[in-house]
Batch of 2 targets.
Target 1
Amino acid sequence: MAESLILIEHDRQQVKRPSLHAIALARQLGGEYALLVVGHGLDGIATSLVSYGASAVVVVDDSALEEPLADRYAAVIAEAARKHGAKTILGTSSTFSKDVLPRAAALLDAPMITDVVAIEKMDGSISYRRPINAGSMFATVKVEGDRRILTVRPTAFEPPVANASPCAIKRFDFDPASLPNGMQFISREERKSNRPDLTEARVVVSGGRPLKDKETFERLVGGLADALGGAIGATRAAVDAGMAPNDYQIGQTGKIVAPELYIALGISGAIQHLAGIKDSRIIVAINKDPDAPIFQMATYALVGDLYQIVPQLIESIRRG
Amino acid sequence: MTDINNATREVFGNIQPWMRVVFFIMIAASIAVLVRQVAARVWLWRKGQKGGFEHSWRVWIERLVVYAVAQKRVHRKSLGALLHLLLFSGFVVLTIGTTLLAIAYDGPYYFHHGWYYLIYELTMDVFGVAFIIGCLLAMYRRAFHRPASLGHNSRDWWLLGLLLSLGVTGFLVEALRMHYTQVQPDVAHWSIVGWLIDVTLLRGIDPGRAQTLHLGAWWLHAILVAAFFATIPVNRFLHVITGPLNIAGRPERPMGALVPLKMEEVEQTGRTGVHELADFNRQQLLSLDSCMECGRCEDACPATATGKPLSPKAVVIDLRNLMSLGGDDVHRTIHDETLWACTMCQACVQECPVLIGHVDLISDMRRDLIGEGKLSGPPAKALQQIGSQSNPYGRSNSERLAWAEGLEVPTAESNPSFEYLLWVGCAASFDPRAQKVARATVQLLKDAEVNFAVLGKEESCTGDPARRIGDEFLFQQRARTNIETLTRRKVKKIVTPCPHCYNTLKNEYPQFGGQYEVQHHSTLLAELVGAGRLSNGSSDGEPITLHDPCYLARVNGEVDATRAVIGAPNDAQYREMPRCGKKTFCCGAGGGRMWFEEAPSQRVSVLRAQEALATGARTLATACPFCLNMMTDGMAGVPGGENVKVLDIAELLLNRRPPSSGSPVS
């Protein structure tokens, strides 16, 4: 019996470290906690988790769980929670848990609180703090019932230290035939990239609509980014036109970046895009329209055809 | 030759006294059913907060004359409007006529004879025909045009069938009476339809048989009348009662002003906006019942047009159904996405013939969502930044004058004796594209030697986006701060290139004691051109069109100045879009939508750009920094749009200036 059950995320090779931060919250809640890993071929991952002070590492390992299909994962998580009598199921605030945990909550008929950043204990009851209105306010909420599901903002809690004496690894057995079959796995697409993460990169090269297509975008924007060891960004228009994937989008409805060097290729400078780059230290803009609004924000402005300038730039950087 | 003075007709000649008693009981019973059902609705409205009907009876009368009798909002060139005119005039005249007959019959003085009678008969026949044609056209429209926004239900056919049968049996009764009483031709001709039926269909029928038939037709007609009265509350006809009530009761407020929340009340009730149906005021609940589901609001709605989950008509009907079913939580039937989809362009409000305030309904429910912390993402961030940085873009307010670099713009500090305060607005202060509009405006004001100043760092967001998104607290905080600044700087006249600032300063700040003479830059520039202080030069000969900003044209009625500034009246190459002037179509940025994510297939700006492109224009002029942003984006998203220049009227005016006068555009 564990008071709390913490869902640990992994990428098949190793644990995703932010998901360990929920352990800090489980300790604050008090009582024993177990770590739950779901997937297939988890031996290595399970072994890496034994020293975090948990009562056990619960492993749900089956070939039917090879791919993270939300209906199956939710079913086994709910069942594991029931069997262990866990009062609190914790996950981390991620797309994975957004997909899986609401379903588990529904199966358990339990309330769910997302994005928890702190708890307050008062008169034996616990309330949870979570940001609302884009973080401008905090709501302190209580839940009814004796079981609840939380997702935790990893940045709000310290990472745990692996210094406890190793705990047991328990296999959680279930009947694979009982798993739901509502979803079918078709394919997995991962962007394997050596480029740095967009929001952390010191150099970001970004492209707009004039890049025309995916290939040109990769050749010019990607080429310059690689020459400078930077990350790739894109405007909404470039993303809409299919030149770049969604998670490259920078701006009001995308990522906010603040690199030391931001290079804008063929970006006119709509305020929606500028909202995502305004804190960049140096902005270099290359655009053939001398009236492009981005020049008003740029530290260095280069008026000209990016199809001529960028290949020369790549060339000269490579030659060093 | 009959003596005209004796011309009259029998009223209940063929109806036995006991039958008359049955008739009166039946009609009284049907009216009782009507009254009872309407009373039940009134009971539902009374669950709301006190509100509406707050102005003097003069306003009520004026409104009723304009919107209920003259039906200002119904008229347009369409089949729907024509058939409504026929049905409405037919119904009104027949109702008045029947009432007059009852007065003549039961009253102390029998006036139903002579010339009065003849004209009465002719009038009743003409409008009876109008009524029948109206019914037939309505059926034709339902069967063949089938406009989707109208909605189609079997009950509509029952209603039309009932109305048509009323008209037809009425004429049959007349013709049969004329046949068996053998009216003289010179009198009969006045009852033109009855006479025509008499001499064609009834030709050769024995008078005695006609009298029997008359009795049957008369009863059929009477039963239909009773059925009509009793079923009014359950069909579209209810608007005949509720429409005028709502028209009279709607509060008098400029279209661009939302209702202020009183903070003392909020402290007492703990309620911001509408969470439960009873949080609406009584007039708002009544307005739900005044909708006859014509669908004009839906036809005008940019959210509906782009496939978003909002139809103003559906909002009204869903709330009405909630009220009928005794529900309370409005969010059970109106989803958050529906409320957020609204651009608050007011097109629905402008269209509604019975003056329903859709935008007020939506604004009230949005306020509740904000109070519950239901907004997240970029729009929530914009609100947060209006609070922390005084502008929605999150830029430091100390950069507010960055746009003016090198222009030597006078500030309220450096030029305290200014005549006009140039209210720049956040967009023209921080959006690099719109900054050019601020620069152009300043250059034009300088050329015309206007004595003006800007507030610089003392300026902050008017709070328009906050109020329209639903954050009334933030809005009022901004409004109070700004009014304080404007008072301290002794501001009398304000001119601004942003229609949203213009609207809020002009229509909403008076709610908090801020009274100014507010002008949009279009009107001031037009005045300066008119007075010869600015030249509007000559166009480049390329086709040009104008996108009217909603908050300038529709909401504040200003459509001429923009056109005057760009010389449209004398420009052979000037083209209007199909939706122009006060009937303009939103760019998609209003109501805080500027900060919402919009799927590519759902962008209003693209729809509008296509409309502008179809005029063949190579320049799209507008007069709002948000429209400028959205239309630039929209044009970039449609094939051929890259060849269209999107410019503010101030930029156009500056570009067209004769080369001798002043510095070039920078």
Target 2
Amino acid sequence: MLSFALRRLLLAVPTLLFISLVIFLLLEASPGDPLGDVPLTVPPEVKERMREALGLGQAWYVRYALWLKQFFWVEPLYWFDRVFGTGFSQGMQRIISFQSRSPVFDVIAERLPQTLTVVGLSYLVGVMIALPIGIVSAYRQYSWFDQIGTFVSMVGFSLPTFFTGVVFIIVFGIKLQWFPSIYDTTHRVTDWDSFLVQLRQMAMPVAVLALYNAAQISRFMRASMLDNLRQDYVRTARAKGLSERVVVLKHVLRNSLIPVVTVIALGLPAVFGGAIITEQVFKVNGLGQLLILAIHANDMPMVMTLTFIFAVLIVSFTLIADLLYGVLDPRIRYD
Amino acid sequence: MKLRSLMPGAAATAALAAAMAPAAFAERGSDGQVNVIMWQAPSTMNPYLSAGTKDIIAGSVVLEPLASFTPEGEVVPRLAAEIPSVENGGISEDLKTVIWKLQPGIKWSDGTPFTADDVAFTAEYCMNPQGGCAQLAKFEGVEKVEAVDELTVRVTFVSPRPDPFSAFVGAQSPILQKAQFQNCLGEAAPTCTEQNFNPIGTGAFVVREFRTNDVISFAANPEYRDPAKPAFATLLMKGGGDAAAAARAVLETGEFDYAWNTQLSPDVIAGMEAAGKGKNAAAFGSLVERIHVNLTDPSSSLPEGERSTIKHPHPILTDPAVRKALSMAIDRQLLTEIGYGPAGQPTCNLVPAPAAWASENTECLTQDIEAAKALLDEAGWTVGAGGIREKDGKRLTLLFQTSVNAVRQDFQALIKQWWSEIGVETELKVVDPSVFFGGDAGSPDTFQKFYADVEMYANNFEGSNPEPYLARQTCDKAPGPENQWQGENTSRYCDPEYDRLIGEMTQIVDPAERGAMGRRLNEMLTRDSNAIIPLVYRGTTSAVSNALGGVKLNAWDSELWNVADWHRVK
């Protein structure tokens, strides 16, 4: 197991380097210009100066090497300095966003809490709803509960969040005025009342995303339960005279959870990636909104850094899922 | 420049008068918080590092210039004691130096005095060649800026300047505090994140917290020169979402007091206004949506580097009758109604304002399909196969390009229809805005390269002096390989007489004469040659809550130019 993990970790290094190069080249090849939004009233000579100030005058491989150095050397040094109060990164240029001219990682750090609370919570809520629905749906296959569950998950699957989000805003935000339609990122939870305010403003985005996540996971759970319910060991357990409760919740559920856990683990990087559309609809302004804005503005350092962090997360969560699989299922051994 | 509230005039005046009265007695910070939503979120507070309107607006809450433009396009003093002129001795006889006298007693929000040194430093900051200053054009032709004494600044120009109000005038070039920014010159400019996000200013508010592309919290500036202002204790500027959601937050849910740039289709706005929580207001600056006619041949059979250059005149569009017919066939009234509603006016002018410069050029406002047909017949273009006109084996077929934008695509479809009625076949093309306006010399799809026969976009000028704007339509400003396709004379209009008049204009000082010359130049480009076919004079629109008073929408300067006067209407 350990050697497997080490081998995979080592292999991840060239994979990630390759991914970073591909992302960089894709961004390089894509049309568009970081100064595309600059008004036409700004003369071309001034634009040229601005372009040079952004470092765009150099060849692509120079800029790529610079980014690598900044990402893998300057940024870690900077954070090391922050923690230990040392001064190794003095005078070194961190990765700077084209849009705001501020360090990319500071902006990401500022955005992470919003994304984790809203998107993370919705994932948690989604999982908590999905598992019981999946279990009951499978155990009582084709019952009315299963039919409703299937219907709800189909709705969750097929309705895009930009639609459900706007419907929620119109119904609960404008008509009923129960919830605010705009998320206040400056809100601080200090007491019971401010906590309620926070709950109110999170209610709609969390609900929209939870519906979407729950739909997917409940289908996995149901399918996996159905597979296991038909197994011989279930019949044996029943024949032994075990109660239905023990049969379903102990024997079947445990075995069915194995693939579901991997699915959940694989979905976790998406939590960090933020929910691009939902964040935009409710103005949560987390990482998803940051990415989409950066893409629109052709903010190369920001897009590059964000997508690369997502790549790192995906690669590491895949590894975690693989290892979890081994831990949960004793039949699987990585030797 | 007209400020047009969408309320009926009398009601608006009454409401304004009622709203102004309590403001006079209010004290600083007595009105709580005002919420502003900017659907394009501000990225920085320093307008010298970003030319984006959203960032300039955010910066204008804190940073102030020496003088501002009013909604009518006039220059009014702000940090300056008066506007320099030849009469008051502020502008020298040879028009090469300008003396700005500063208002005494002004303090930065940190309590230190505001002096002429700060003004001179600001010029040094922007004119530094390594800084990549986005507002460098404001300082064009400035030789030096010196602090004569504590409260006097002298600006020296390389050549005479009849209209010197570019540097330090308007929200694009406000004054930075020397003490705060002195280590941020040149290459260090972008690394000064702390300074760029939290500039110390003289304006009505100070930054309390800045989150880039998300939200900015402001608090009333304790050192602001008028002790009774601002009426609001705090200002929250939230970013994100889209124009419709922003308008909804003001007009329907009432969560916000002011939404910037709510350019939406007129029926959508009308539906939202029906909720009775606020109004969409419009202000007009100099933005004109127009069609540029390519006077050079964009044909793909020409070698790269010669397409759309002066070397090869356009086979069809060099015929003035065709250009005139194209203009006559367009119903500008209908375009305006469909695309912009009250936020637009049909126009035949490239320079629609200020009043002294706006030509009485209204001939094109009535569509005349029959006359257009007759004109083409007369010029020898006869109707051929499929109803398309032809002459000497050349068919009247045009490629019409523009950027991706719902209103522009509606316009394209309508214009295509009208042109087909006069026997002109039109092929439509749309380009992503970041490519179209990106100016990448390697791309064939930029508006400057103009590998099409006609194209549509909007442009405006900053400040209230259209001279530099008109000067960009001379022969040598035509984009081509020799200037990396960067010129702004996209029509490739080239008339020696025009160039001569532009040269003459730099010598004229008298405002009335300048206006007359400007009108003449504008007519040469539009009515006389139809090299540029203006369509709609576009306003900027913003949604204002009924609970917010004191808003005077301004298209010549930052929309928040008078945020100090904003107050709560109870």
